[in-house]
Amino acid sequence: MDSRLPGELEFPLDRRIGKTTAKALEKHLGLKTVGDLLHHFPRRYLERGELTPIAEIPFDEDVTLIARVQSNNRRQMRARKGMIVEVVVTDDTDDTDGSLGQLHLTFFNGFNAAKELVVGSRAMFSGKVGAYKGQLQLTNPSYVLLDEDAVDEEEAKRPIPVYPAAAKVASPTIAKSVAMLLDTLQTERLRDPLPESIRDRERLLGLTEAYEQIHRPAEVADAYKARHRFRYQEALVLQTALARRRALTAQEEATARPAVPGGLLDRFDQSLPFTLTSGQAEIGRELSAELAGDHPMNRLLQGEVGSGKTLVALRAMLQVIDAGGQAALLAPTEVLAAQHYESISAMLGPLGRGGQLDGDPDGTRVTLLTGSMNTAGRRAAMLDAASGAAGIIIGTHALLSEHVSFADLGLVVVDEQHRFGVEQRDVLRTKGHSTPHLLVMTATPIPRTVAMTVFGDLEVSTLTELPAGRAPISTFVAPLAENPQWEQRIWARAREEIDAGRQVYVVCPKIGAREDESGSDVALFDDDGGTRERAQRQELTSVTELTEYLTTVPALDGKVVAPLHGRLDPADKHETMTAFNRGDIDVLVSTTVIEVGVDVPNASLMVIMDADRFGISQLHQLRGRVGRGGLPGTCLLVTQLEPGHPSRERLEAVAATTDGFELSRKDLELRREGDILGASQSGGRSTLKLLRAVQDEALIEKARADAVALVAEDPDLRGYPALDEAIEAYLNPEAEAFLERG
Questions:
Q1: Predicted pLDDT of residue 149
Q2: What φ, ψ does residue 327 adopt, rounded to 5°?
Q3: Residues 377-386: what's their mean pLDDT?
């Protein structure tokens, strides 16, 4: 084959399936080439041989049935935008005894279902059986419309592939396009990314056979074999990309920052009123050794809220300062940056007030730089950074400004890494004379395999112990759809905490009547029956309206309620947090600006309104704000979702455990396909199609070993051109950079 010709996978779709269909696939699904469509794999398969009569369907189990649509109605949600489509189906059999079974189907914002499931149409439905108002139902079931035309017996036995579809391009349309493609596929132009030796060792299908069996399996077992082959391919492509970048990183040079006996770090350790946990001490030794090397440290430090990550990071900063360098801490919000500034300044004491009258003569200086500072304050902070007067510079995105320079930047610490893009972090890393060392912190626990898959060349350290004084947190779901009277009980419960001398957080997904606070997930739900007058006046609970409402609630009469959100004047934000810290505010009504870094030991209750708007990791982070002062913490997850709504499962998962790693795994199981590397994080189309970082742990480890061996043998992959091309096709530059640094 002429290597100058484009491979079969790069061939334009319109040349194979016609311009009209190709245009629709590109417009609605972003599929442009033969490879795009071939890698648009079925989400699942429906088997005709395992159908369940409606009269025999079991409760709380997954079922597949062929049925005919009897009615199709839609209604608008009362408290939310959107609609609910209610479909009634009957058995697709002859009504010999006059007792056809009936089943109710519910689709939240089911625009496709409203249009496609017309009365009299026949389809295969699949989903989990639930119950609502005494009737069995399927909520958001998957379905495939069935052709009324007769098909031959062999074809009738084939599993039906169900593809990720769009409103204008249904799954059957995609299936027909794929079939047309497979029938005209020029297999001699296919280049297999998997080296033959690996394919033989793992007994994997060849590329042509794998495409046929994943899209047109004779039986489901064939599809599983093909999926396994493509999972290995994905794992090898990802891990080879990472191995290649790790090899390049290993060639970078950094300024060694060895520990200095008797320096700031030793004096700081001597001043600590407590002993480091064994985990903090062990990770501290790891960081110290890497900082002393002449290649840049690239490490991820993860640990639960309150596990002492900031202390570990501060000790690393002090070692760099002892060696003549500076450290920059990048925080995602001004509230968190200010918290870090205050907590680090307090931990250092006189050691952090170098050059001041009450400071240690040999101490360093801690400087805060944020976008909202006045001109004089910002100019002074920038001078501290540029002159080297400040050893520790803490800031938000303002640190990334081209006007900010450093005397000798030796360490970059990034807090809550998921809030920053790769480009933003890299801007800060280019401000050193040589490549600075990098420490990334996260309080969102990440399963080991996910870290290995997503974080690439970052070595991972995990703090598993909680320091003494942390109390357990009890979490409960408060479902107002079934129990509207619980709303007043929530505020009575808040009053009980206040009367006991404690304080309360109330978290809302919105600031005002029209603005969403960034970072919350969109969930669709209905306020059944309109039981809450206030819910009917607004789509989601907002800080401004709830603050006003709580001043009228009898249970909170005479108590101080104050708002906090990202659009307040910085001085007002600071004053509000300071007042809450002092205990002058009883109830703080806030957006997620308090998600990380805020530490008020006296706060013992958190009420999260419209909790279904937030993801699992965010809910886990939020509730970590209570139970920090030795007092037991309580978190109430308030929701108006109807029973059976898919998002209720998220809330039940958070209420069931406080184990962050277990929740992280659950989060991955509940997310839709490919979200680990979704567009919102990487800037490009999702790369994970079949690979599952949690379930495919053994496969990923094997592929990682293969990738390391391949790159060691052939760093430029000159002997593996198809694998090199697959890396380019699977990973756009943004996604590959995201993989490298998480």
A1: 58
A2: -125, 140
A3: 93
